[in-house]
Amino acid sequence: MAEVDLAVDPAVAERVFGDRLPLARRYAEHLVTSGVERGLIGPREAPRIWDRHVLNCAVVAELLPEGARLVDVGSGAGLPGIPLALARPDLQVALVEPLARRVDWLDEVVADLGLDVRVDRGRVEDPAVRRRWEGADVVTARAVAPLHRLAGWALPLLRTGGRLLAVKGASAADEVARDAVAVRRLGGGDAEIVRCGTGTVDPPTTVVVVERVRGTGRPARRDRR
């Protein structure tokens, strides 16, 4: 596997990943080699794989409670789920992805890194997938869908009081305003925009946070590992 130079201060990456920095570096190598070859990452992304992808996702860890059960929906190349699992080994992480070729790649990468991470092929709107992962503390997503659609998929997976963390871009505020009514109708609270990684990534990562405020009346299932 090709060597990938850190495009950021190594001290910054070490602050985020600690003694798991070698694993984070190996994950970056997977992204810019087989990830590009198999169409999970665009070839132009390789020079900025750390600041735009790996660190950009890992800094979301500052929003996660200790030992959280996290479901990453539409995981694709494992973003943000794998960087979060690397930065926070206390987390219980599941990567849910519908496309077989992406699932195969995720299985290979998770095995190579030796991570205790589940990979599940499926669509989060499918009842069987919901049954497997409902009761999560956190659902994450990056570049998956507009907020109203994402909330419809993610909120049923969360326990009451759990939170959707949607990594968004510059249009986050417009999206929050546009979809506020739909999100509340789906059982979510008022969305909050949070900037993560100030002083670590530039610009900081924009995250839309939505808490599930209404439940279904069914007990949350806490552990399927």
Automatic annotation (TrEMBL):
* Keyword S-adenosyl-L-methionine applies: yes
Q: Name one Pfam family in it.
A: GidB
> SUPFAM superfamilies, alphabetically?
S-adenosyl-L-methionine-dependent methyltransferases
At which positions is S-adenosyl-L-methionine bound? G74, L79, V124, E125, R142
EC assignment: the record states 2.1.1.-
The UniProt keywords, alphabetically, are: Cytoplasm, Methyltransferase, rRNA processing, S-adenosyl-L-methionine, Transferase
Enzyme class of the recorded protein, top EC level: transferase
- Indicate whether Repeat appears among the record's keywords: no
Q: Which GO terms describe its cellular component?
A: cytosol
Query: InterPro entries recorded for this chain?
Result: rRNA_ssu_MeTfrase_G, SAM-dependent_MTases_sf
Q: State its location(s).
A: Cytoplasm
Give the top-rank taxon of the lineage listed in the UniProt record for this protein. Bacteria
Principal location: cytoplasm
Care to name a GO molecular-function term for this sequence? rRNA (guanine-N7-)-methyltransferase activity
Say what the protein does.
Specifically methylates the N7 position of a guanine in 16S rRNA.
HAMAP family for the chain: 16SrRNA_methyltr_G
Q: Which family does it belong to?
A: Belongs to the methyltransferase superfamily. RNA methyltransferase RsmG family.
Name recorded for this polypeptide: Ribosomal RNA small subunit methyltransferase G
Q: Quick one: which gene encodes this?
A: gidB
